[in-house]
Structures
1.
Amino acid sequence: MERYFSHPYSGSYVPSKRFYIAVLAVTLAALLVLGVPVLTPDAVYISNVVVGPNPMQPITANPDFNLGYQSWQYSVGHGSALNVITSAAYTGSHSLYIDVAPNDTATQLLYSNNQTLPIDLNQSMVFYTVLKDGGGVPGGELSRLDLILFISYKDVRPIIVLVTLGNVSVPQGMTLSRATPLGIEMYRYLQPSSSWQQFVLQLTTPRMISLYQQTLYLAYGINATGSTASDYFLTEFLVHPYNINCYIGELGIFSVGPAPVQVTVSKLTPLPASWLLKGLYVNSTQVNYGFQYGGLSDSYTFLLYIPMANGINLQFGAVTVLGYESVRSVNITSAPVAI
């Protein structure tokens, strides 16, 4: 009887023990590189945050005086000056130069473009101005710039908002606000500076709505509790300077858009950070974002619907799927001063 013996390699291939050892080693290495770092608290962390400025769109006409006095009416008292000049400008080619004598009460500037008035107020509406100190006012003398806004409630009653910027007796960095039977008074110290200073007043914040309501009750006995931004609109505004030498680079009502934000998230693994994150948060509120992979650091971009102002502190947080959190604090320093 003949016997047949198959060649040891002619049948199915049986991997050697060395092969299994190699596969196991590669798997363990991949887990060490990709998996184990994910389990550590520092697997994902915020390494950088960039907050851009709010885009601002003017609603009132000629806010930078590039068209001279177009849309403005003015009067000038004896010994004072109110001139549109080209020697100093903020964004365009012109600015308004003001030099008002101590006893002058006649000089003023009134916005007079009725085609843009009245203006319905909403959450993105702000009153915005850019100023630069011109010097020349003796120390110790009262010097101020009164910005006066007229707000109407349901076209029934006017509310006068007086914003005073100057060397008033208010601690630096603070705004003193109060409602009176005559209107709303707001005072803020104007720091003497040869650089341009931006100021912004948000017209529909809870603080302002509350001041409107208090003034309506004190002045007219009207209970406006529950009123919202849509119940108010701006009818006009003017500037009344007193014993001041300054430049106005921009002045008017603007619509403020959301600020662009870029958050850089670094990680100890080449896995996309989006696989490891439960969410991104700003001041404990989760945000929707766009994502761009970048190896060991990924970029997240989103829009922040908060008007930026000097001194605002924002807390950015990245929370992983395991519950670890990385927090980075950002203090805004290059935005307008909030009145």
2.
Amino acid sequence: MIEAPSPASTNGDSTRTEMIRFLVQCSFAERIDAIGLRSFRNNMMEIINTTPMGNSKQNWFSGVKSNLCQFETKFQNLKEATSVLELVLWKNSIVETMSDDGRESRKRKFDEPDSRSQCRVSCGADVIFRNVLPYLVPVSGN
């Protein structure tokens, strides 16, 4: 993922710029890798590699840090949203199972961890996520 600057560059400013970009990639590598969506990681690397530095490298660096924080926040929010969605689906599966079994066995059946686990497995979250996540993930890192 991280590429070292090419030593064949003849322009001193270009070499310095490539070196700065490389050092920023290395210093943020752990945080970028912790972002669980490939599209977010790729967008972050693109920002580091293609955003012009201009005269103020400190402003550029602040912008990169700001973008990284935004991607981390978006990813955290997405994780929370998917967790809540999974809990809702799981709860719905439990309620449906309880209503199918009748009132007498309700307490006995759901005191057993295996019953809850089975409802979680069969709640359909994997199918829902495949169809819902594309709408939750922003396009082009927006």
3.
Amino acid sequence: MAAQIPIEFQHLVRYEPTYSVLICCPCKMAVGKRGWSRHLRARHTISKNERKLLLTALDPVCAIESEDRFPQPADVQEPIRGLEIYNAYKCNGCDFITKNDQMIRRHIRKSHGESLFLGSKMEWRAVKVQQWVATGKAAKYWIVGTGLEVASLSLPLTSTDYQEPLKGLSWEDRMERTEMVRLSKQDRDRIVMTDAKDVDDTTPWLLRTKWPQIFGGKSLRLIGRTRYSELDPQTRTMFPDWTDRRTKLIGFEFDRVVMRARSTLILTSDSLRLWLQSSRRNEPSRRPFRTLQRRGTDRKYGLTWKQFLYYCLRVFGLDSETREEQYGVVFTGEQLRCLAEVNELIDEVLLEREGEELEEDVEEMDEDDFPYQSDDEDEDESEAQDQNASRCYDSTNMIHNTVTLTSADRLTEKVFELCIKFLTQTFRHSEDESKAPLVHFCGVLGIDWKQSRFRDPGNYTPHLAGIMWISRLLLLEYALPMERYSTLDWPAREYYQDHRWQLEWVRREFMLEGCPTPLGYMVSLMAYGKYTAKQLGRMGVITWDADGQGLQIKDTRVTMAGFKTYIRGIISEARDIMNKELLFGVGEMRLDLVNMRDVMTEKKNGFSMIDMEINRLGGGLRYLLNLVKSASPEKTLLKGAEEWRRDRVLRYLERKKRY
């Protein structure tokens, strides 16, 4: 049947004879025979003549005319060639299927009860699905066989087991099946390093980080998803005993640790902060280490460390063999001891607070929306943050001045000790530093699990900056805490006669570039990442059509005609708001935009293009005052002749601000 499509168009259209459906190969979706003209104009940049030739070639093909008449294939069969294969979740209690891990959890909770949702990990299962189209009546899923009814690529081509299922197929079909098996194996998110890949498929950045070797043969999706506060159904099967209450409690306790450390930072002199910021042995930084983040950035930096704690505590619960095979992280004896003690205290606190609603943790950000932090910060905001931290310090101070510590207070201090055990780990000469928890997690941050690849340095260094900032803050708290840690028996800073040398000891041991420690590794990696990113530049995200009449921005397509319509709509809407609301429906703003002039080189203080006579923009205040008096009773801002109505004036100013 493929011969019905001219060979010059077979890369674009495929005919599925079993279901009498035409499939668009680049879009990996089916299109009704009547809809091909519209589809080609909207989604593909081919010439008008080529479009006519293709539509003429499709005329004799016996295909279904519209998408709503597409048949529903049966489940558990071979995938239909040309259609996308999706990861999805199927409810075991009914026929509900969704690609969204949040939707399957919500469905189980609403349709089958909260108790089933919490009590069993078998309420849903991961499946592979296909669909004809993404929207409309034909947007229904059917389950396809993940094995593709053929042998694994690991078998040689001469194997009779491999050749048997392919008998009777043409050479092209056999090659296509072979490629589908390879892609299916790749879709399991595992990286398999070979000698050729080690030489050809790596960049200087990946050669430096060694991430392909560190995560070779492991599931990038599993490792990448384990760090999030909310686990998807597939990852949750690895940690069936992990609950959302544990996640919330860990996040809350780490927030207390950070508040205490921020208070210590505020009460630390600038001279010490200069050395804290520096990664060089004998040279202070030109800028002190400060809490000068944009609004919300310090919260997101803290979120990265919370994810690190979630990751470690979850992986700690696995047996050592599974931990090594699936993740490749190795804990020291001291770290294992701290992890066990933290786990015990978490259980104790959760038991004490049974039935009590725990505070919600912060919302997690999108993988690609991590903020880039510049050095230029807002002083006013920093001052406000310092005041907030001072108030936090007062409350923390009261807690730790009490005679007896609660289980939650002991948990806070143990969480801090665990963080310090990770930060002060020293690598021995024969030790593989990539298996150290913090270094390993730096690699986890480099995984783009959605694309099953590693991040380039331009997208990675902002993530690394967040974990480094929190690391410095915690090490300052370790060196010079304002208050004594009773559970750990660590003294306050008053115990040390020379604060500078106490901080210097911590710096030289754990914080300098070249130190065999996690922070020393991060400093070196950050320097190389910034240098590489500057040399390579950022990858473009816009692809223009050949005729220049459309472009693609990631997954969004924009046509020039649609963009012009969008701009005209904005201008029209702005004009309506101006005339009907801001000018009270009695005035109209007429501007000669063609002849309007401005002087971009004018440096005179207070200069404005409004004052230039050629623009005829003067007298605006008198004009508006006249409009206020001419407005209808429903829109006027006056009460009586000359008294302002406060409520209407405030609403008017709000509309003006929105405009």
